[in-house]
Amino acid sequence: MKNLLLLFACILMSCGKSSVEKPDNLIPEEQMIEIYYDLALLEAIKTQRPLMLQQANIEPTVYIYKKYKIDSIQFAQSNRYYSSDMEEYKQMHQEVARRIEENKKQLDAELRKNGGIPSASDAPRVE
Question: Mind listing the pLDDT tens digit of every residue in the chain (127 residues)?
Fold first, then answer.
């Protein structure tokens, strides 16, 4: 639900302003795609296996900030900047979806090969 509200807020912000000033500490586009990808995986884990994150003592947003050495303000400003151009923002999220689908196909192939038991070394990871 929070993600839907965030997306809705981003859309409203992008419609309200024709351009958003580029922040000084803008996260590069490729790194933002990596962040969106990791957030998508963490959200899926949180939804499907919530105890997994609790047992590993992982709070998704804190994990992302530490991994990418960013803070919430930098992320919010960068997200706002990228979402102000809906075409670019859409392409970034399409890249995330493409990567997820690619990893799903790899995992499905591994599951078939191993008779339904995934190999830990071949499973997609959030690092």
Answer: 556 555 556 665 555 444 789 999 999 999 999 999 999 999 999 999 989 988 989 899 999 999 999 999 999 999 999 999 999 999 999 999 999 999 999 988 888 888 766 555 555 555 5
Tokens of residue 41, six digits? 């995986």
In the chain, how many domains are there?
1
Which segments of the chain are extended strands (E)? none
Q: 45 in a domain, yes or no? A: yes
10 domain-assigned:
no
Q: Which two tokens stand for residue 104?
A: 């799903």
| CA-based nearest residue to 22, from 93, 95, 89, 84 | 84
Find where tokens 């070394």 sit: 121
pTM: 0.73
Range of 50's domain?
24-110
Which residue type sits at 65? Y
On the CB side of 108, CA atoms within 13 Å amount to: 6
Domain for residue 56, yes or no?
yes
